[in-house]
């Protein structure tokens, strides 16, 4: 009996340790993922801020900048169809892949599944034709799709797939293909991160057209062309379709903005990608013109071209429709007070007080959007307050609509009460159980189904089982990191879950590893997580040195392990339990002191490439490569993989206006020619990165 108790205690301790390791590993992966999303949103907000402050010198310059940073909104209906004309593309006789003809039949879907399993590629003509037909269908759908279990035995709800085609194949294998008796709801985030996003979209759009009443697609936060620039879908399309990739991307951008925002099952279960906020209203959500929001990351605003006309408008002076040269200027919104009780501008003090009260919220919003720190307050002048927001009624309506969509696509639940800004992701909000309860009661709903968050078991309940998270991309962070899952709902609306892992992990392990499978699997995932964390630490070497020196008053090169943990969190801000993770990151020390310079040198040795780039340069490249690649793709407006001289020149004007750097056109031309190392008239990413490296190398 004593032996049995000892074995039981040992086993429980062993399982508890494994669970603790698994949770720590999970925290690392998730913290790094959300930090990357923060970087994406802050980078986009920075470009948005530059756009709002930039005054083009000509209509050509204005149009160019607008097309570059607001891609997808510049094409009208007829222009888009003409640009993406699939009928003009010929399919060669040598093409052996699947062929589509419309209207689509179930055999077409089967042929596509078989072709993609064999790594075949659908011809660009058929892709564009499919997107054209999908767009026509989606335009007829409401913002909130309605599904009834009366017409099918059950409804299957799938979460994020993120370009992992094997997961979709496994779902269809286990659950069956869509059919008149088997309805599916795919809850967004079909693309990015994985390598087969395009194939997933082709399959889902095909089934959508074959079974329009049984297949329903919701928009996710990754169905956004600005997000695609960073997370892989843009690059994937351009690599697979080098000739017609730009047309295909343009059509995808337009199709994404027509995807419905939510699905309602039996008027009792609401399916949305992200979540809700305390202001989410289904009535308003149903009325929004959803195609206006090509990218949810940027709210398109009509801005004043300069501050002088804005002040003239405030003072009641008439705005001219032409500039000094007599050319027609872009329309501008007046900031003239609309209220009858608004004070007259003659009394500047009274007017200033009134203006502060009416726009203070908008000032705070602008600070958050452009990441202006509250710790460095700037006195608000008469003109600076005027230029921050347009208080036109239509602008307010559009902003509220934008917030409704942003919250639905980006929000996450939290265990605490209330609703607050989601600073971890950088977009949407955190909503508590009280917000969920009020929302369900207001709309007579039983519970919510959402996705947007990777869960270790593929699904998770929260808020007293009123919110269900479903995530269908297995092995999301690393092989073995998580299961995928889907949920089936019958007429009783009781959820039934199916879990799976698409990768054949067991076959990839040795016989010895299989005997201790959970331990080997956790070790494999844990190793990947700590490798990513070390890269993150190395990328912030300079900041870490400064933080460590703050605790090293005598300049001994040594700090306590407790101070090490505090300093690391102050720099990375990942919210990780550093004291618990320390044994995996820092070698044991006898006296509890760490020689931090030696520790950082060890990190550098791990990350140093075979090219022997000096550590300081490698650190900067590690820290900025993702942002640099995103910036490159933003500048590369036509997604050709090359930045033309014109694209670089116009972008440099945007930067120089923000940095108050005066540079002539000849100076810009000299700069761009110096970056074009191979003198082919374009700048590729390697040249772009090399120029960045050389600039950082200069003292």
TrEMBL record:
Reactions catalysed: O-phospho-L-threonyl-[protein] + H2O = L-threonyl-[protein] + phosphate; O-phospho-L-seryl-[protein] + H2O = L-seryl-[protein] + phosphate
Keyword Metal-binding among UniProt keywords: yes
InterPro entries attached to this UniProt entry: Calcineurin-like_PHP, EF-hand-dom_pair, EF_Hand_1_Ca_BS, EF_hand_dom, Metallo-depent_PP-like, PPP_dom, PPP_phosphatase, Ser/Thr-Pase_EF-hand_contain
Regions of compositional bias (Basic and acidic residues) in chain numbering: 307-321
Keywords: Calcium, Hydrolase, Manganese, Metal-binding, Repeat
This enzyme's EC code(s): 3.1.3.16
Compositionally biased intervals (Polar residues): 335-344
Domain EF-hand intervals: 539-574, 623-658, 663-698
Domain of life of the native organism: Eukaryota
Swiss-Prot/TrEMBL GO biological process terms: detection of stimulus involved in sensory perception; negative regulation of MAPK cascade
Key word Metal-binding present: yes
GO molecular function, one term: manganese ion binding
Cofactor: Mn(2+)
Positions of region (Disordered): 307-344
Family per similarity comment: Belongs to the PPP phosphatase family.
Protein name: Serine/threonine-protein phosphatase
